[in-house]
Amino acid sequence: MIARLHNNKANKVAFTSASVQCHSSSTSSRLSSIRRPQINRRRRASLFKLARYCPATLAIPTAAATMKVKPAPAPTSRINLPARLTRPAFKEIDAAALRKACPELGDMPLSYTREGLKHMSTHMYAGVQGAVPQHSKSQLPHELQVMLSDPISHGSICPTHILAITSSAPLKAGTPRKVALFAAHQLVLSANCSRLPVFPSSATAVPMPRSSGTASNEVTMPVVRLALPAPDHFAPLMWYLYMKNPVALRRALLPTNWSADVASVMGRVRAVHGIWANACALGVVDAPLYDALEEAWQHILRALALATAAPSS
User: Superkingdom, according to UniProt (predicted)?
Assistant: First the structure.
């Protein structure tokens, strides 16, 4: 039986605005550079209607991917790890459900939508990084005020919802549930995940007129609650859903010259298994993601075997 690799110990309710420390290894693509099949102005506009343009201070991720992995305490008892991270049976995205959730897409094919998202990924992820949910209460409301970065000449694409990520593991009586807040775009999630709850409508999903050529730095976004098996490892998965860069993900999980002692290896066991478990829970439909995770998993298992091998006499 697979050992539980994520241990949620929350002493109090902690709402945090989280962002992944990963970066794309490729430079941002201009929207106008999309090659065949080209997105004409009308179809491009239909994609942009799902996320309001808002100027924001942004740092387009261009460096090689990096991700901090916390070392885990060496296990004091025997644990069982799966020999492979089994790829779940893919349940393709329901195109009719996607069009119902995002009616601005019209009859645009799913493959065409994903291609458009690929070319807007850096702009959309910059919008995620520039959105800061404002919340200090112990109770999570249905909507949150979100502060956006200061306006600049080049715009990022404003997120549409706030994801409230919690653990799906049962809590002990009287233990508050820890919540992490992520700004996100409904279209990115709906186009890649087949197991999502219904998203409430969002005012930021539709372009709004600006007065005097300026945009407000504060918007209201609806909250979507998601219970996942490894909430501490959701950020790298969300980064991947935007950037779709399996090579950068592998580099983040297994950087050059990473320490292969038992504590470091166990930290990477939890990271890789956590991303995989979250992807399965959300029904992520992306074969390269599971290939990258399986490759990293096999490398980590070999390193763990060497780190725990009995010294030769």
Answer: Eukaryota
